[in-house]
């Protein structure tokens, strides 16, 4: 398949996935009698709402039409009830399909600069770590490592937060509520895929998770998009107990998408006390680099229960 065809197909996947999320009654249409063969709007209904012919819309969804006008894109966005990140993603995929994207994102760089490692140490006792564009954990300070118990049991190249959420038994119990956390994580992964949905690191991760996790496969198929730069997460941590932390996400320049994630809690709260115990668990100085061994006192509990808010990680 030609590159433009493949890119048009990605636009078509997005249109089809978002069409399935819109009920007729959401846009003032009668639901009609009997069961629909597929969820959401029919192609002809969406085409009418967007002000295009059914044949033209079908060509768009099948990747055969790759250059819709701005008016058509706006009509599709309104008909699909897209907001913010979802609307931005539609425009991004149209640019990709049309070939107007000048440059794809820089290749992922998994090397963490020494200055960034020093920053991780400087924010202690706040837990902090660095992730790649697709959520591979590249480095962490000691409280950041202890915030994610069990992740360090995996080989370095497998330490990915999205994989951890779906496939690690501790990852499935650490955050509350788990269902909301994973939905946001997948939506964030869709968002950061950006103009390069065929990136090998992304396709390898998605292929593995689609095969191993029905929950991931369902959420990936929805094509929800949500890029977050901060927020709040609640933890049920096996070492320090329940806590709710806020987090900020900082993009690192010239890294191909690396981000530093730093957690904190309101001073004087029980949440802060729990968070600080993550750093006091081991007073010995230790490098922040993720390749170093986990502290010997790090437990590896197992379970299968429920996690929290977010996506940047």
Task: Name the quaternary structure.
Answer: single chain
Q: What shape does the CA trace take? A: elongated
**Topology, number of strands:** 6
Distance N to C terminus: 34 Å
Strand order of the largest sheet: 2-1-6-5-4-3
Helical proportion, percent range = 40-55%
Order of helices and strands: HHHHHHEEHHHEHHHEEEH
Strand content: 5-15%
- The radius of gyration computed from the alpha-carbon positions, rounded to a whole number of angstroms, is 22 Å
The SS-based structural class is: alpha+beta
Report the biggest beta sheet as strand number plus sense, adding barrel if it closes. 6 strands, antiparallel
Unreliable runs: 282-312
List the total number of helices.
Answer: 13
Mean pLDDT equals 80
Secondary-structure map:
Layout: H1 3-19, H2 43-50, H3 54-61, H4 70-79, H5 84-98, H6 114-122, E1 128-131, E2 137-140, H7 142-147, H8 161-167, H9 171-174, E3 175-176, H10 178-193, H11 200-212, H12 214-222, E4 230-237, E5 241-251, E6 259-264, H13 270-280
Antiparallel strand pairs: 1-2, 1-6, 3-4, 4-5, 5-6
Helix pairs in contact: 1-5, 2-3, 2-4, 11-12
